[in-house]
């Protein structure tokens, strides 16, 4: 075969921030502060929801799962990125790269379907309020999360298998700061149109199908809100959905730009910038979007702080 005398790639070298060599220590400090703040914020959200019985509702159950998912998602990518910013040799083993890709795809794909489940929850709450507790019982909520995880697991297994069964023999220079699909595919010695098509179709399945479900939910939600006679009632109903809509827009906007573009439009510098936004900034802002606009959650945090300061009262 034509690559018999070529070296098989056993590790990859990250070049994601190589053009910013003089700023890497500053980037380390900035990203570390943002990462710690993200971990702290998500920990507060999860612990508040678990400890406060008033928040034991489907909406907050999904929010807790979302926060847990985003914490795990950043843990897969950011610690390694922080180490590499200070390291001379920014490498990852072939197996380590495959594990990283599988894990972040699993969490990212599950995140897409989880947002669709949260959209369905808002649809039931607004369009069928009298049957909400029946339609969104604990079994249904757990089932929706399990289905989201099952879809994410399936897509990540198939995609990772397709990518890492390709031959890698020449360059191991990865123009990114983690093992994303497009940068790794670019290093493959060759890959069939079929594998590219399957990976693209899986991206469509993960992004387009949940987004269509969310859009259908919101068409019905808006229709129901417009029928509410009072302006105060309409505002209150819409405000419960605004946070979810913002998160959906950011998530699907970034993901679609990265994964649904033609390969000819691939740009490593653009992808690095967008990837920083959805691996560091989005997990930072999402909890804040959901909680700072939510009076009920802010009240729960005040109750938790009061209990911590006076545990025996």
TrEMBL record:
GO terms for cellular component: plasma membrane. Keywords: Cell membrane, Glycoprotein, Membrane, Olfaction, Receptor, Sensory transduction, Transducer, Transmembrane, Transmembrane helix. GO terms for molecular function: G protein-coupled receptor activity; olfactory receptor activity. Coiled coil: none annotated. The keyword Transmembrane helix applies. It is found in: Cell membrane. PROSITE patterns: G_PROTEIN_RECEP_F1_2 (PS50262). Residues 41-290 form the G-protein coupled receptors family 1 profile domain. InterPro entries: GPCR_Rhodpsn, GPCR_Rhodpsn_7TM, Olfact_rcpt. The keyword RNA-binding does not apply. Its main location: membrane. The chain crosses the membrane at residues 59-78, 98-120, 132-164, 194-216, 237-260, 272-292. It is a multi-pass membrane protein. Odorant receptor. This is Olfactory receptor family 10 subfamily K member 1. It comes from Oryctolagus cuniculus (Rabbit). The lineage of its organism: Eukaryota, Metazoa, Chordata, Craniata, Vertebrata. The gene is OR10K1.
